[in-house]
Amino acid sequence: SIDTTTNRFKVLFKTNPSVTSDGFKLSWTKKCGSVVDLSVVGTGTIISPNYPKPYQPNLVCNYTLVALGQIIYGVFEDFNIEGSMSGEIPCRFDNVSLTVTRPRFVTPVPNSRLYFQMQHPQEEVYCGNQPPQPIYSLNKLEMVFRTDMYFAPKGFLFKYFTIKCGGNITSPTTISEPNSTDFRSCVWFVTAPPEKVITIKIKTMEARFVMCRYNNIKLYDGHNVTNASSLIDTVCKTRGPGVKTRFRSSGNLMA
User: Fold this and answer.
1) Which of 65, 81, 158, 229 could form a disulfide with 127 if both were Cys (CB 3.0 to 4.6 A apart)?
2) What is the mean pLDDT of residues 168-186?
3) 192-254, what's its fold?
4) Domain 33-163, CATH among 2.60.120.290, 1.10.10.60, 3.40.50.300, 3.30.2290.10
């Protein structure tokens, strides 16, 4: 059986001019929820049923993303879920709940390619029309979309992919990546206390063969690494005239 994560599924049937057989029979049912192995697909999209039209009442949709040994990164590019009135229990009517295991970055062992400290899974519940901050979780991300029988906005669009190295930084530290010929895409999410800002200084960076397009460090104001408008700068060297090596966030989040 095959489960999709959107409301579209394409079947392409090809034949040649010489060999025939009995063909096939395909049956399908409409449901919501799925289990996705990201070691197979790598990236994808989850949308609420009927998106971008209003979602149906009385839904309980369970989505599970699995990527052992990797960080799953996701961002809500559109989000409109029935919220609660002031004074009511938050998100009591419709909501999206996420169970995440946030990896905490620890100063790496020399020549270590990946060093995480596990944290306990946490459930986070969201509703309203403001997209949550980007989500990242180690090994597995569970999403449950629940609705009641009444008012229904258009729902959500959630995009995800895997990150093979990186982590979550909550205190001053030094990141050191050893020389490697392997292709890697690493993301570190830096969080400072509220009302503080973050300063990052790049001490050494030299892109191999001066190919800045493929070997670089990108710095983002906030945790949304898919939004081009959040990009502060792209660095591929730390020496030379006019090269900038110190960067500052506007708030307490940076990546």
Assistant:
1) 81
2) 68
3) Jelly Rolls (2.60.120)
4) 2.60.120.290
